[in-house]
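Friendly challenge for the regulars: who can give me the structure tokens for this chain first? No prize, just bragging rights.
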Amino acid sequence: MRSGRNATVPRRSLRWLLTGRTIAIGLAIAFSVSPSQAAQHRLPSGYKWGRCLLVVHGETRISGKCSYQIEQGGDFNIQGPKQVFAGIDYPDPHSGAGEMSKDYWAVVYKDGDSWAGYSNADIEATHGGERWEDLRREGACYAGKDVRICLWH
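First reply, four minutes later:
Bragging rights claimed.
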């Protein structure tokens, strides 16, 4: 037989239900963010988002979205979209030993009357393991023996 009481949810269960619903809504919102939005993070001062191409020995290492910095005189560097930055994505180590890399990167610079460059040969490398001399400019690209580096900003 039914009692004369209204069917209610005990307070403890109600709190759990609301908390569970809040968590579920939060997770739904978090997972609804597209990967391209989630991958875009803050950049260091002076860096911008652009489009890049880095091909070394026929291997495409960066193609599409990238971050870049152009210095006075035209020297520039490009970073793959997954790159991390000291002081933004991880604590500033204040020394090279604590630096991190999560993507390919390249640097192009004026060397006397010609252009040269270097990049990491491995995604986790923070030093330039590959160097190129006598790069020639071809529009938005710099090309040399076994390398092509392009930046569209």
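The chain has two helices and eight strands. The radius of gyration is 25 Å. Your move, everyone else.
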